[in-house]
Amino acid sequence: MSTTTASSTRSFAILTDVTLCIGCEECVAACKKANKTGDDDAPWKWQGGAAELSSTRWTTIARTQGRYVRVQCRHCLDPACAAACPVGALYATESGAVAYDADICMGCRYCLVACPFRMTRYEWDSPMPRVRKCILCYDALTSGELDQPACTSACPTKATIFGEREALLAEARRRIEAAPDKYVNHIWGEHEVGGTSVLYISDVELTAAGWPEQLPGHAVPELATTVLSTVPATFLTVGAGMAGVHWVIRRRDKLAAEASAAAPPDPDHTDDEVSS
User: What does pTM read for this prediction?
Assistant: First the structure.
């Protein structure tokens, strides 16, 4: 299937076919390189021969029932993590990605509690910690730097592919119908929690790879509601105000920098003045 550059008007997704994954972790290496996350931050998180997600490992390969399964943020179409964020640092995009703005994140970690898949991680050891997770290479795709996420581009067997969500759902149905004895008759992510932008088909059940056994076929705003009900209204108001002030300051600084860059050079400003 050909890849397509993401845009703001079409919903894109990733489809992972578990039967094609060979566990090579080329997707993991590509993700680390593209996002400059460096070495894994916590060796103790390696369990059962597989590494868990962490603040430096945004995708990983789990092993279940003799199969390799890629694990990453599911990118819910109606994300509970974004609903739980009091300042909007996490937000759903029209392209299908759940993106993140570290500049306004307060580090409250309510998103970690709200995520029904437990895919979000935190920089616990950092003096200025941030929430860390896959963002489907959102910035690189929207800027045109990449035409598909780094992970899907690196997959040697095309076990994980990128494209428009509806086209990938159609491809998933085609594969299942073509080999009904091979695949479980289910597309993980088509309906769970209102649908996700990371889809799976498999010949084994995926409950051991981060898909809970009991997930509703609709969005789960109650997860965010439960989290936010523990937050005083004053905190939310102050937090929103701080985020607004921060945005105004960033906007002012950006406009000032643009104005400075566009200004003609001062003819009276000589090299001697600079050196002095």
Answer: 0.76
